[in-house]
From TrEMBL:
One annotated Gene Ontology cellular component of this protein: nucleus
Domain of life where this protein originates: Eukaryota
Organism: Mycena alexandri
Protein name (record): Nicotinamide-nucleotide adenylyltransferase
InterPro entries per the UniProt record, alphabetical: Rossmann-like_a/b/a_fold
Length: 288
């Protein structure tokens, strides 16, 4: 499993310049997202999307990526047919800082995370992608269009079912009215948010789902997020899961902060050995 830096930079540039809405930097095989054998396919492909800044990816990302598909309604759950780790080159809240990992470095760490995922889960259906879209509503539409074009005339009976894997902090951005209004003081922002999310979650439209990892302790902001999510939790369009007592306390911010203060014992326990070696090798986040 490797990424060509030259190829990755070319594709990254195309997305950043608006020449392409989305690109796959790495795919495990040419049929992806179809399984290697498509015999007996009679249902929508179940595709998980781990969408994050990966700055750096932690063991919490790995636990979330490896979480099984939860049982929902008549769906008994199980494995996802395909997975994609997705990096947006346009974030609604964040811009690159001098001490941050570059997009190329994040893509390379995403591939290391995919290698860890394969080792832990015994499967190899993980692709690495980049997209030029800051909102999850927009990502769902672009992903579906991209996947349908990629599948082409393949014998897939229904459009893919997308499940976004998120942390509670990211769910807060999905359910923040400020991202949906025409201005920060738009009085109709919450109404517009629910209209957009209806399209995002509705079976007649994007038919997306969200699987969100619980945290060890919930802040007041996160409690407000869960309050806004009540109708979607009731409909099982948003499902909360546990990823592990230790993992639910991990974050990329904590890893970066520990690296910055040279607390090796702290940060090295938050990431996988492959990612740990890469951070040291690339001298990321002020590592000497």
């Amino acid at each position: 499993m490797t990424i060509s830096r030259a190829s990755a930079m070319t594709l990254l540039g195309a997305v950043q310049r608006g020449l392409s809405p989305m690109e796959l930097i790495y795919v495990p095989h040419e049929k992806w997202p179809l399984p290697r054998s498509t015999l007996g396919t009679r249902r929508p492909l179940q595709i998980s999307i781990l969408d994050s800044s990966f700055n750096p990816p932690t063991l919490a990302h790995l636990a979330l990526a490896n979480a099984p598909r939860p049982p929902i309604g008549d769906d008994a759950g199980g494995h996802f047919d395909a997975k994609i780790y997705l990096l947006s080159v346009r974030n609604a809240d964040k811009s690159l800082k001098p001490t941050d990992a570059s997009y190329l470095q994040r893509l390379e760490m995403m591939l290391l995370l995919a290698q860890d995922s394969v080792a832990d889960a015994g499967e190899h259906q993980v692709a690495i992608g980049i997209i030029d879209e800051p909102t999850f509503v927009g990502k769902a539409s672009k992903l579906l269009a991209f996947l349908e074009q990629r599948l082409g005339v393949a014998p897939v009976p229904l459009r893919p079912q997308l499940t976004f894997l998120l942390g509670l902090d990211t769910l807060e951005r999905v359910l923040a009215p400020r991202y949906y209004g025409s201005s920060p003081i738009d009085p109709e922002a919450e109404t517009k948010m629910f209209a957009s999310l209806h399209k995002f979650f509705s079976a007649e439209h994007d038919n997306a789902r969200v699987v969100c990892a619980r945290r060890a302790a919930t802040s007041s902001t996160e409690a407000q997020t869960l309050k806004l999510a009540e109708r979607f939790l009731a409909d099982q369009r948003i499902v909360l899961i546990d990823i592990g007592e230790a993992e639910q306390t991990y974050s990329s911010t904590a890893a970066r902060d520990a690296i910055g203060r040279r607390d090796d014992d702290a940060w090295k326990n938050l990431v996988s050995p492959r990612v740990r070696e890469y951070i040291v090798q690339e001298r990321l986040f002020a590592v000497d």
